[in-house]
């Protein structure tokens, strides 16, 4: 079993839709959490950190549930430019990356 | 501002050959990381350096892999001899701090194909 698990998708959604991605992690000693975005054949880039109280950055909302070892990312009002792979990342004295969830937004 | 610079961007080599990947981190960053990405295993940390000193190389697959950071502005990852299973995208990343809580900035990667 992988330490960070994500649904690989793809999620195909129309512009304007709301889409949610989930991620589970197995090591309760994990210290901090992130979502990275990776465009096709490009490098990963930090999208946002995830805090226990939940946090929002524009159309993006991240949630963390430490008891269930579960992280989520919600994207509202999807844009074509949101099409990418979203990587769930856990800091356990090193970054552990999920294999990513692919999102395709269509017109 | 220049980001993390990696070279070459693409490398095709034959099994048994030596491969050297190069990385220039962002100026002023204290930590440098080498990752490998494959479809099957995703992104995996190979080794990282703090202030040019290797801290954790437990992710290095085997003795065929070695990494150096002779100064704050340059690092290499060497594979000798290369094997087809080494085919992957190799990313270098750097960060300002010495813990994993700091944002890591990735280079564009080197796409390695070993035939």
| Main interface: chain pair and counts | A-B, 16 and 17 residues
Radius of gyration of chain B: 13 Å
* Unreliable stretches covering 5 or more consecutive residues of chain B: none
Number of H/I helices of chain B: 0
Q: Kindly state the mean pLDDT of chain B as a whole number?
A: 95
Structural class of chain B: mainly beta
Q: Can you tell me the overall shape of chain B?
A: globular
Which structural class best describes the helix and strand composition of chain A? mainly beta
- The parts of chain A where pLDDT drops under 50 for at least 5 residues are none
Order of helices and strands of chain A: EEEEEEEEEEE
What does this structure look like?
The complex is a heterodimer of chains A (107) and B (115). Chain A is 0% helix and 56% strand. With 107 residues, chain A is mainly β. In chain A, strands 2, 4, 5, 9, 10 and 11 form a 6-stranded mixed beta sheet that branches. In chain A, strand 4 and strand 5 (44-50) form a beta hairpin. The model of chain A has no long low-confidence stretch (mean pLDDT 94). Chain B is built from no helices and 11 strands. With 115 residues, chain B is mostly beta strands. Helices cover 0% and strands 54% of the residues of chain B. Chain B has strands spanning 5-7, 10-13, 19-24, 31-38, 42-50, 53-56, 65-71, 74-79, 88-95, 105-106, 110-114. Classes of the chains: A mainly beta (107), B mainly beta (115). The A-B interface holds A 31-32, 42-46, 87, 91, 93-95, 97-100 and B 41-45, 48, 56, 59, 91, 100-101, 103-104, 106-109.
């Amino acid at each position: 079993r992988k330490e960070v698990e994500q649904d690989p998708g793809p999620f195909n959604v129309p512009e304007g839709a709301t889409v949610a991605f989930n991620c589970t992690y197995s090591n309760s000693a994990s210290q901090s959490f992130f979502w990275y975005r990776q465009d096709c054949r490009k490098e990963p880039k930090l999208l946002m950190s995830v805090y226990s109280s939940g946090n929002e950055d524009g159309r993006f909302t991240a949630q963390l549930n430490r008891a269930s070892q579960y992280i989520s990312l919600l994207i509202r009002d999807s844009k074509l430019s949101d099409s990418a792979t979203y990587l769930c990342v856990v800091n356990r004295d090193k970054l552990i990356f999920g294999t990513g969830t692919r999102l395709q937004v269509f017109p | 501002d220049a980001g993390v610079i990696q070279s070459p961007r693409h490398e095709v080599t034959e099994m048994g050959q030596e491969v050297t990947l190069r990385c220039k981190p962002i100026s002023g960053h204290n930590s440098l990381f080498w990752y490998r990405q494959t479809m099957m295993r995703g992104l995996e940390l190979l080794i990282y350096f703090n202030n040019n000193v290797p801290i954790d190389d437990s992710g290095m697959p085997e003795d065929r892999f070695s990494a150096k950071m002779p100064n704050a502005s340059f690092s290499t990852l060497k594979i000798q001899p290369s094997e087809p299973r080494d085919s992957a995208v190799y990313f270098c990343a750097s960060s300002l701090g010495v813990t994993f809580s700091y944002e890591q900035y990735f280079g564009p990667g080197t796409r390695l194909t070993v035939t």
